[in-house]
C-alpha cells in the first residue's frame, strides 16, 4: 500500500511543478545568497525542495525576512531575473494574513464564553459525532488512493469553531471519549479541537480559528499512506519501520498539496508538525525560524493528545503528567509562551478529568470556572468508600461544605482505571443528564 499510494503523488507533484502560467519565459541565473535582494524570484535551491522549509517550488523574495529564511538553509540559489508577473500580487494587509507570534498579546484575557456547558452540550455532541465520522471517511478515502474533500473539511472545522466559541468545555469533555482502535481519526479531531481552544484563548479571529483548526484536522493525513502493520504495531518500531512511519510528514505534504483549494498553512503544518525549535525534529530539521505559528500550536496540542491517549503500545497518561512533559520541552523544543498559554487555557483540572475530592469522593470535571480554575463544576461518582452514588453536579465555586464542615475542593487528578471508571460507559449511561438533573444549587 505504501508504494501504491506514494508514487502517484510523487508523479503528480512533478507534473504540477512543470506548470507555471504566472510568469514569462525562464532564465536561470546562479546567485550566491549574499547577493539576494527583495524582488528577485527564486526558481531553484542548492538542495531538493522537499529538504527545505519552503512550501512552494518557486517564489518571489517579498521581504527581508524572506531573504533571511533562504540564507538560513542555502549557500546559493538560481533566480530568474526576466520573470514578470502577469497578475499583481495582492497586498498582505489584514491582521489574519500577518498573524504571527509577534502580534499576539499574550497578556490579554480570553474572550467570554458565548454559552454554558449545559446549553451547548447537545449541539457539541452532534457536531463531534458528525465530524468524527467525516474524518474517518477522509482517512478511508486516502487509504484507497482518493483525495480529500477540502470544502467538506472546512465546513466541518467551522462547525467545531462555532461550538467551541460557545463552550470550549463541552467539546473538551467529548474529546475524552477515546477509543484506541479508532485512535488516528479521533486524534485528528482532538488536535483540531485543541488547536481551536488554544486559538480562542489567544483571541484569534474566527477566520484564524478556522485556519488553525484545519491545520489540526489535516496534520496527520499522511499516516493513511503508511502500512497498517507499521501504523498499528504494538511494539517498538525497527529503524526501517521508523523511517517509513516518519515519512507520513512528507506524504501528508504531497497529499494536501494535491488537494484542491487546501489552505497553504495546513500543507505546511502536515510537513512540519514534528519539527522542533532546536532543529532536531524531522523530516527537515529546519529549526525555529522555519516553523510557523499555526504549526507550533498544532505541535503542542498534538503531543498533548498523544500523551494522554491510550495507544496500542501504551496507556495514556494524566493531564498533569502530560503538561509536565510539555513544560520540560518548552523553550528548547516547543514554543514556551504557547505552552504556557495552552496549560493556562486547559486549567489544572480540564473537562473530563477524573479527580479525588478532599473528602475522598471521586468525581469527573465538567466545566471550568474561568475566574476560579481550581473550583470547576464536577459530577460526583463514588463516595469515600468508592461505592457508586447517584450522579450529582456540584459547583465548587459555591464553596459548599462537606459532611465534616470543611470547604469541599479537589485534592488531585487520579487515573480512571485505578477506580474502574470508564468515562465512555458513564457517558453512554447518561451521566451528564443525570448530573444536571441532580445539580446542587
Automatic annotation (TrEMBL):
Identify the residues that the record assigns to the HD-GYP domain, covering every copy: 162-358
SMART domains tied to this protein: HDc
**Pfam families, per database record:** DUF3391, HD_5
Which SUPFAM superfamilies does this entry report, sorted A to Z? HD-domain/PDEase-like (SSF109604)
What protein name applies here? HD-GYP domain-containing protein
**Which organism was this protein described from?**
Methylomonas fluvii
Amino acid at each position: 500500500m505504501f508504494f501504491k499510494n506514494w508514487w502517484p503523488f510523487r508523479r503528480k507533484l512533478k507534473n504540477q511543478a512543470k506548470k507555471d502560467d504566472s510568469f514569462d519565459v525562464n532564465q536561470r541565473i546562479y546567485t550566491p545568497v549574499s547577493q539576494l535582494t527583495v524582488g528577485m524570484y527564486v526558481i531553484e535551491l542548492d538542495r531538493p525542495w522537499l529538504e527545505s522549509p519552503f512550501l512552494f517550488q518557486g517564489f518571489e523574495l517579498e521581504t527581508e525576512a524572506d531573504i533571511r529564511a533562504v540564507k538560513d538553509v542555502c549557500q546559493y540559489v538560481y533566480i530568474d531575473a526576466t520573470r514578470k508577473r502577469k497578475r499583481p500580487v495582492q497586498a498582505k494587509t489584514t491582521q489574519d494574513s500577518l498573524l504571527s507570534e509577534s502580534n499576539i498579546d499574550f497578556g490579554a484575557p480570553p474572550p467570554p464564553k458565548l454559552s454554558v456547558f449545559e446549553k451547548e452540550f447537545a449541539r457539541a455532541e452532534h457536531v463531534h459525532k458528525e465530524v468524527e465520522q467525516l474524518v474517518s471517511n477522509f482517512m478511508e478515502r486516502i487509504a484507497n488512493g482518493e483525495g480529500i474533500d477540502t470544502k467538506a473539511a472546512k465546513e466541518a472545522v467551522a462547525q467545531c469553531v462555532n461550538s467551541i466559541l460557545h463552550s470550549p468545555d463541552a467539546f473538551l469533555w467529548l474529546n475524552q471519549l477515546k477509543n484506541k482502535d479508532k485512535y488516528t481519526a479521533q486524534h485528528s479531531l482532538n488536535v483540531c479541537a485543541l488547536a481551536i481552544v488554544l486559538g480562542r484563548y489567544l483571541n484569534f479571529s474566527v477566520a484564524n480559528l478556522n485556519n488553525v483548526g484545519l491545520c489540526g484536522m489535516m496534520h496527520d493525513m499522511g499516516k493513511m499512506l503508511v502500512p497498517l502493520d507499521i501504523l498499528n504495531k504494538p511494539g517498538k518500531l525497527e529503524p526501517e519501520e521508523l523511517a517509513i512511519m516518519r515519512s507520513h510528514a512528507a506524504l501528508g505534504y504531497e497529499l494536501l498539496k494535491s488537494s484542491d483549494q487546501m489552505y497553504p498553512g495546513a500543507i505546511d503544518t502536515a510537513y512540519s508538525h514534528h519539527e522542533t525549535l532546536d532543529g532536531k525534529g524531522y523530516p527537515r530539521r529546519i529549526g525555529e525560524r522555519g516553523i510557523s505559528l499555526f504549526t507550533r500550536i498544532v505541535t503542542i496540542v498534538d503531543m498533548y493528545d498523544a500523551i494522554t491517549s491510550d495507544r496500542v503500545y501504551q496507556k495514556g497518561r494524566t493531564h498533569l503528567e502530560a503538561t509536565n512533559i510539555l513544560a520540560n520541552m518548552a523553550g528548547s523544543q516547543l514554543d514556551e509562551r504557547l505552552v504556557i498559554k495552552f496549560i493556562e487555557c486547559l486549567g489544572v483540572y480540564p473537562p473530563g478529568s477524573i479527580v479525588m475530592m478532599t473528602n475522598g469522593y471521586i468525581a469527573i470535571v465538567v466545566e471550568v470556572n474561568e475566574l476560579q480554575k481550581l473550583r470547576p463544576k464536577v459530577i460526583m461518582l463514588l463516595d469515600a468508600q468508592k461505592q457508586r452514588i447517584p450522579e450529582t453536579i456540584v459547583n465548587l465555586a459555591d464553596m459548599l461544605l462537606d459532611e465534616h464542615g470543611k470547604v469541599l475542593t479537589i485534592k488531585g487528578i487520579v487515573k480512571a482505571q485505578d477506580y474502574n471508571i470508564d468515562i465512555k460507559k458513564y457517558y453512554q449511561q447518561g451521566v451528564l443528564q443525570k448530573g444536571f438533573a441532580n445539580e446542587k444549587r
